[in-house]
Amino acid sequence: xxxxxxxxxxxxxxxxxxxxxxxxxxxxxxxxxxxxxxxxxxxxxxxxxxxxxxxxxxxxxxxxxxxxxxxxxxxxxxxxxxxxxxxxxxxxxxxx
Length: 96
Hints:
The chain is an alpha+beta fold.
């Protein structure tokens, strides 16, 4: 079993201790950096009094981005399936 790392991630001026697998560290640190950057932008652009509101806005933004990616993936998968079916028909027709 892999040994877990104990790290601390800072988000919104709070520190969160985490136990993670080594291969997760880089992604988590990048994600925390992105969240902090987005929080700073929201705080500078809007009159936000509470960090909780800023975090909610960040969560909504990330969830929206994920939803758009998922929609694109589904569309791409459907297009790829159609192309594969067409290619399969072409191969079958040329084998006969």
